[in-house]
Amino acid sequence: MNPSFTMDDVRTRTYKARDAWWTVFLVDPLAGRLVRFTANRTSLTPNGLSCGALALGLGAAWCFWAAGWKWLVAGAVLYHLSFVLDCMDGKIARLKGTGTVFGSWLDYVFDRVRVLICALALTGGRFEATGRPVYLALGVAIVFLDMLRYLDALKVAAARREMRSRLRSARGAEGEDRFVDRLLPVDPDEATDEVGTPAPQVVDLQQGFRARFSWYLRVRDWLARHRVRPHLVSGIEFQMAVFIIGPLCQAIIPVTVVAGLLMLVFEVAIVYKLWLSTRDFAHAMAQAEADRVAA
Known about the structure:
This protein has one domain (7-294): Four Helix Bundle (Hemerythrin (Met), subunit A) (Up-down Bundle), CATH 1.20.120.1760. It is built from twelve helices and no strands. It has helices at 7-14, 21-26, 28-41, 46-66, 69-96, 101-130, 134-171, 177-183, 207-212, 214-225, 235-249, 252-294. This is CDP-alcohol phosphatidyltransferase. One of its GO terms (molecular function) is phosphotransferase activity, for other substituted phosphate groups.
């Protein structure tokens, strides 16, 4: 029997409850419809889409290297289409249940390769065209910031998982999961839960941060109602600024600098929230140890 997925199926099974604003507003409306068509009418696999995304990314890099304004526009368009395909592979995997561990690895590696090659092509092409060494430094900065963002995201998520695991072990009972989630809930910046599934408790981000920035919860909740995560300038927005907005506006240097600084501001905020979490974690561990001794 041929599959017959509807747009409701696509939205329910594949859209994340919180995502980058670029994805929510500029990618999902197109990617969702393409996912429905692809799932119903073709036999394309998630890995095939990942390879297609890389191929379009290489095409974008070739255009960037050509350096003329028309080529920069073509490169920006190809990069956006590459990102659309990159979003589609995960959606197809979730919709059809065909995701694999290798596919997840492939998608991650191809993303980093695309950024690396496009950064070298964009800045190298501009250097060849203008002779300005600043473009070479800009290329190094783009690659470094992309690497920093994704490594930081992995380590922050790992640190939070470790704290949850140690708290559960210290509390010693399955029923204490609620206590752990209240103290160290999933950060909206990291959340990848899909629409239609129970979302993790995120209202009480952490006691220390909430006490200092009570207004943040109202902003975050407003963004959540529109499926937008509060990390407004993440790796995705940084990439789109560098490889789409900058070339289209013929303002590669200022756009990249501003986007890089904004991303660093949000990264510092995430690290600050993690630091406050570790303080709450230390207090909770001390309390758990005191309860164990008293018992």
